[in-house]
Design goal:
By secondary structure, the chain is mostly helical. Helices cover 75% and strands 0% of the residues. It contains 6 helices and no strands. The longest helix has 27 residues.
Length: 108
């Protein structure tokens, strides 16, 4: 039998995904995640008492490397329309980010 390692995303999905989707669409949460503001999620993991400090730190590191991985974990059990709504917002934030970086480079 081959056991698959549990990833940070699995922890987040198990802990938060159900409530995240049930609370309805949250544009502000997508913006915070896209901007790399993970305090509420790392704090919630730490305060849950279910995870070691090392696991919480690994989750935070993983999100810093790939912010979208947190959103993916939160939406792991979401329906297709919910996924589409969040994807559209993420894509808009990506375009805005690239556009602002291009504008800044004009003045460099």
């Amino acid at each position: 039998m081959n056991a698959e390692p549990i990833t940070c995303g699995n922890y987040v999905t198990a802990t938060f995904a159900r409530d995240f989707v049930a609370e309805g669409f949250d544009h502000d949460a997508v913006e915070r995640i896209h901007s790399g503001l993970f305090d509420e999620w790392s704090h919630a993991l730490a305060q849950s008492g279910l995870f070691t400090n090392r696991t919480v730190a690994a989750a935070l590191h993983s999100w810093q490397d790939d912010p979208h991985s947190l959103l993916d974990a939160l939406l792991a059990n979401a329906d297709e329309m919910t996924l589409k709504r969040y994807d559209l917002v993420w894509e808009a934030l990506e375009r805005a980010h690239v556009g602002s970086a291009e504008r800044l480079s004009e003045y460099a």
